[in-house]
Amino acid sequence: MLPRLTARQWVGYAGFALVFILTAAVAVWRGDILRSGLDPQVPFQTYQPPAKPDYAQADAWALLDARTPAAGPAHVFFVHSTTYNGGKEWNGAIDDARALAGLRGAVLPNYAGPLALAGDVSAPLYRQASLYTRLTLREDAREARAFAYQDISAAFDAWLKRHPDGPIILAGVEQGAELADRLLHERIAPDPALRSRLAAAYLMEHLAPASRFTTVPLCISREQAGCVVTWRSLEENNESEARRALRRALTWDDRGALVTFDGLASACVNPVTGSADAPRSEMRESRGATNATNLEWGVRPALQRRIVAAECRDGVLWRSRLSSESFRPNGAWAEQRKIPPYNPFYADIEADALARLSAWSALHPS
């Protein structure tokens, strides 16, 4: 006969069971709980956004005409990725300290850094849509993402006044690529004068329909100027993340709204080959991956060569697993849902930009 439990033992076992259930629930629904904590809980239509940046002022720019020794003649306009998590705001203020730390510590050295040898680099601060807006397809979230474009368009106007001639490179990563995509199609593609100045556009970690790139085409040769290099990379065998990314992918319609593009093939240009017609690259072709986090602007990082194989397949750039500790995911839940704080294609982008600039210069000898 089993011993009868005392009241204290019953309470102890019940408490243990409750803790076990709560722990299991947090493990299963942790993402939903944390995502919910980033929800502003107000309709975007009644939301009061942060103050508008003044792009005539230097403090509205993360970088403004930043040059490195021996930089080329290009003017680079770089739009940064999501660094503001969210909470009470749909769109982050440009002076949010935590967002700025992520931008200056990780995003700029890893993703704007490869373009530094091409010329002077400018990167506007803008009222970016929060990380939460990229984790849901709600209409409020789409409106917050579209709202950020007005700042980028204004910054581009101010930047063009500073650079009325010469070759330009347009670049963006993740949210920044989404906004640069619209800028490319609304401002550069319809304008023959601006289009003739475009050496290349880099839409990094971005999904867009291949059919979108007509007036400004996808790059098919390294000797080609005025074209687009775009990709969304994932580690090989991560099929579930690929399905999720493609399911959530949005593109701009003619009214400036973000809409799904299910059923349309996604554009992908392998940054190693620089060609939509050469989708696969071997490890031996990789010019160098790096983790440039926390490097000062202008300091060229150490490169790890020949460690990345990549292939554009089904609209996604599949890359080999990076075994070095420099390329391991880190940080809290929110940080792991942003772009990686390293760049597997750093030297490839760098070489591609210089090749596009050389091709542009050959077409414009004056």
Brief summary of the model shown:
This protein has helices at residues 7-37, 97-112, 139-162, 175-188, 192-197, 239-248, 346-363, and strands at 61-66, 74-79, 119-124, 168-173, 198-204, 227-231, 233-235, 250-252, 258-260, 280-281, 310-313, 316-319.
Describe the structure in your own words.
The protein is of the alpha/beta class. 33% of the residues lie in helices and 15% in strands. The protein has 7 helices and 12 strands. It has helices spanning 7-37, 97-112, 139-162, 175-188, 192-197, 239-248, 346-363; strands at 61-66, 74-79, 119-124, 168-173, 198-204, 227-231, 233-235, 250-252, 258-260, 280-281, 310-313, 316-319. The protein has a 6-stranded mixed sheet with strand order 1-3-2-4-5-6, sandwiched between helices. The chain has a 4-stranded mixed sheet with strand order 7-12-11-10, with no helix packed on it. Helix 3 (139-162) packs across helix 4.
Ordered list of secondary-structure elements with their pairings:
Blueprint: H1 7-37, E1 61-66, E2 74-79, H2 97-112, E3 119-124, H3 139-162, E4 168-173, H4 175-188, H5 192-197, E5 198-204, E6 227-231, E7 233-235, H6 239-248, E8 250-252, E9 258-260, E10 280-281, E11 310-313, E12 316-319, H7 346-363
